[in-house]
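User: Tubulin-folding cofactor D, Hibiscus syriacus:
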Amino acid sequence: MASREEETLKKEEETGIAPNGEDDEEHDSKERVLQRYFLQEWKLVKSLLDDIVSNGGVSDPSSVGKIRSIMDKYQEQGQLLEPYLESMVSPLMFIIRSKTIELGIDSDDILHIIKPICIIIYSLATVSGYKTVIKFFPHKVSDLELAVSLLEKCHNTASVTSLRQESTGEMEAKCVMLLWLSILVLVPFDISSVDTSIVNSSGSTGEDELAPLVLRIIGFSKDYLSNAGPMRTMAGLVLSKLLTRPDMPKALSSFIEWTHEVLLSTTDDVVSHFQLIGAVEALAAIFKAGSRKVLVDVVPTIWNDVSVLIKSGSSSRSPLLHKYLVKLTQRMGLTCLPLAVYQLGAMWLVLLNVCFLVVNYIYLEGRTSSLDDNISSSASNKNNQLNYVVIPDNHESEENSNCPEDEDMDVPEIVEEVIEVLLSGLKDTDTVVRWSAAKGIGRVTSRLTSGLSEEVLSSVMELFAPGEGDGSWHGGCLAMAELARRGLLLPSNLPKVVPVVVKALHYDVRRGPHSVGSHVRDAAAYVCWAFGRAYHHADMRNVLEQLAPHLLCVACYDREVNCRRAAAAAFQENVGRQGNYPHGIDIVNTADYFSLSSRTNSYIHVSICIAKYEGYLHPFVDQLLYSKICHWDRSLRELAAEALSALVSYNAAYFADFVLEKLIPFTLSSDLCTRHGATLAAGELVLALHQCGYDLPCGRPLFWL
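Assistant: Predicted structure for Tubulin-folding cofactor D:
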């Protein structure tokens, strides 16, 4: 443990990160500054932890609050804790284990010792994630009964309600014990062989009977599935690890019967509602952890219940329940499909990656003399392969449609129903449901044949119909991004997809005194980001030329900061991965994360710097002229007028002859916002033209007012 910390500190010294904070913070990156402050606070945390370890427990309750308050500061920078997690978690878990063995599980003092320690461990799990923290939990076979007994004692203790700032540690202790059990139930032995209650009773369990230890774990977990706190998720995690063991078919069948009763229950109270959510969440976790061989037989039973529940009022009233139902649906669909189907999209991605690996191998082998020849030959071979696979002619298309792959692929009827549920989930009113459905579409489509995946794409494209709402457009963009990111959206489909993405980048629908569409624009930027990661530069050259002006218009002129940053990130990803793009690096350096944080700076400075490059002035003017000067937000109209005048210096004649001619009629618009913005813009343009020394023709009927 100590050696790992020393290595971390040594690396920090080599990279110039000084713990004393003497470096100039103004010129350092955000991560370096946060790391420097964390190193300063780590000294305090380390001293407090050393006191706890030396005393065998928490002697000063205030130390727990200090550690927790420090850890909570870094919830968005959990990676800073990872080098120190082992030195924090392992000693604390050792205290819990050793004190329980020393005092005995029946001692009344054991909970007073472990609760403050569990508060610290739970804080670490909250910041760094439970998957990272449980790596350092003890996992001896003998610890299984110990953890179950501790959980039983916590479970049977009367609950004391308190404020979060004055936590008594009951909730944290239960969560830590459940996390500990989630790795202990994976012991590579029959659990009945480590159950001392069987040995002490001088008997044995029958073939159809479960070990008492297993029954206790399942009983506690079922109780916690009705909880509204984090214990529900962790209980589902324990059940998913336990019930998917090869020696637990009876326990799995029994749990499926119990969930059948819960899913069909008509009781409408709070406890039953959370129990319903917990049961669905546990089933989703089981289908994530279990193998296809174990779960494929129980899919029809569960699907009958889920298909009824997903159409019920309970699902429509609870976004959380609907989200878990969509998760469960997609995982049941994956269970019904074979694991490896090399469809057209996946084959295209494989060929692309193989080409890159060949080029990298040639470079690493040091064959620099013939590198250019090898790269060109590899690229030509790859293009030939891509042309054959991705853009077949009619004859090849007919052959592909009759290939053994399509004939041998037997898609169960339930998969069609699963895809229908996922497509309807893309239009749901809640973002979490749409996001889960989009990921499900990507995962299920990756196991379908090329013909079926094209049908899925066509269904997704229908979500962008003119009559669809903002939720449908948002879900469609998320699904499109998932398909592109996984290599399932072939380059031959880009001509019909890109125009839709461009429309989504500018999606803004007026509703009363405001508008909706920021989430659609953000998702459209995600689609563009996925394009940059998935395609070869030869396929993206024309696409990037179409998308770049629109991405930069959103990056400079969008009202919402998250949309501006998302569009800039998508442009940066494409520039970085697609090779040489004219002035790409200069634009990326200008429109960075921090410069776009201010709307005024984006309009007045960033856009002016980008407009000097060829191909961006006219799209910027059109964006301001047709979208921003008529915006419902007054401050945005004022900024748009000022930004429009700032562009005059690049082409005064264009603004005098074209822009003013388009702008003047808008000053007589019946819409008050348009009239106000056009009047402001006309005044700013005339002033800017005068300052540039451009003389407007005399006698020209510019002003009709």
